[in-house]
């Protein structure tokens, strides 16, 4: 569910939504979502001083906590 949430938010922000790719890495205590976007769209996902990335992580954390999980978002270049 968290993957679809992040995918929806990020695709709404970027110019090339077809190049949004999210990989899920399951760990023992947490789940890592690795986000890849087009090179031109990285700045749009991160935002000024990381504000948009922080907001996405906050929403993700709230969603994961509701399910009793811990989920981390990594934005890869």
Automatic annotation (TrEMBL):
- GO molecular function per UniProt: RNA binding
Q: What is its main location?
A: cytoplasm
Q: Which SUPFAM superfamilies match?
A: Prokaryotic type KH domain (KH-domain type II) (SSF54814)
Q: Which InterPro entries match?
A: KH_dom-like_a/b, KH_sf_prok-type, KhpA
List where in the cell it is found: Cytoplasm
Q: Name one GO cellular component term.
A: cytoplasm
Q: Which residues form the signal peptide?
A: none
Which biological processes are named by the entry's GO terms?
Answer: cell wall organization; peptidoglycan biosynthetic process; regulation of cell shape
- Give UniProt keywords alphabetically: Cell shape, Cell wall biogenesis/degradation, Chaperone, Cytoplasm, RNA-binding
This molecule's function is given as:
A probable RNA chaperone. Forms a complex with KhpB which binds to cellular RNA and controls its expression. Plays a role in peptidoglycan (PG) homeostasis and cell length regulation.
* Alphabetical list of PANTHER family matching this protein: RNA-BINDING PROTEIN KHPA, UPF0109 PROTEIN SCO5592
Which family does the UniProt entry place this protein in?
A: Belongs to the KhpA RNA-binding protein family.
Share what the entry says about its subunit structure, partners included: Forms a complex with KhpB.
This protein's name: RNA-binding protein KhpA
- Which gene does this sequence derive from? khpA
